[in-house]
Amino acid sequence: MNSTMRSRRYTTILLTAMLLLPSTLAHGTLYPLALPAMVSRSDFIVVGTVKKIVVEKEKTDTRPLPGARVTISVNQLIKGNLPRAIEINTDPDFMEEAIFAQHEHTLLFLQRTRTGYAVVQGFMGKIPITKGIAGPVHLIQQPEQIPVEKLLAEINAILKGEPKRP
Fold first, then answer.
1. Contact (CB, 8 A) for 6 and 13
2. Separation of alpha carbons 73 and 76, rounded Å
């Protein structure tokens, strides 16, 4: 990645962070993180497939996203212990919430909540996987798209306390 592309990417991340600031005040800290911070904030990290989406609150003029209960089939457990299927509850009033699609294959950074599980850092904690490529990745110091095996190796190295490999 040349310096112009890197500069453009960091500018995009900075602008995204600035746009997210108003909702951050209401919902806590939401800004792009580096991979080690994302791993640290997560109770669970999984690769899974969206099996079912049940819309519980419809989208309205004042609610930009629908509230949904999303059933994820856990294909690979990277951090923590979870059953083979989990439910994620999305917050329809949180504009930066992760949005799911039926049968989508994704890497998820999750936290336990009172009502089940939630994606860490909204949409930034959900990384779609298509044909072995993870992306878009909304993390600092990561390429926008990366082979999923390389990303998983970096996560495992962080979990083991090993330095990042080039």
1. no
2. 9
The pTM score is 0.75
Residue 99 belongs to some domain of the structure: yes
* Distance in angstroms (rounded) separating the CA atoms of residues 134 and 148: 5
Nearest to 118 by CA among 59, 67, 58: 67
Per-residue tokens: 84: 């083979």
**In-domain check, residue 76:** yes
CATH code where residue 75 lies: 2.40.50
Q: What is the maximal distance between C-alpha atoms in the chain? A: 48
Total domains in the fold of the chain: 1
Q: Per-residue pLDDT tens for 35-78?
A: 999 999 999 999 999 999 888 766 666 656 667 789 999 999 99
Indicate whether 20 belongs to any domain.
Answer: no
When comparing pLDDT for 19 and 137, which is higher? 137
- What phi and psi values does residue 132 have, to the nearest 5 degrees? 80, 5
70-to-13, 32, 74 alpha-carbon distances in Å: 27, 24, 12
Choose between 84 and 24: higher pLDDT: 84
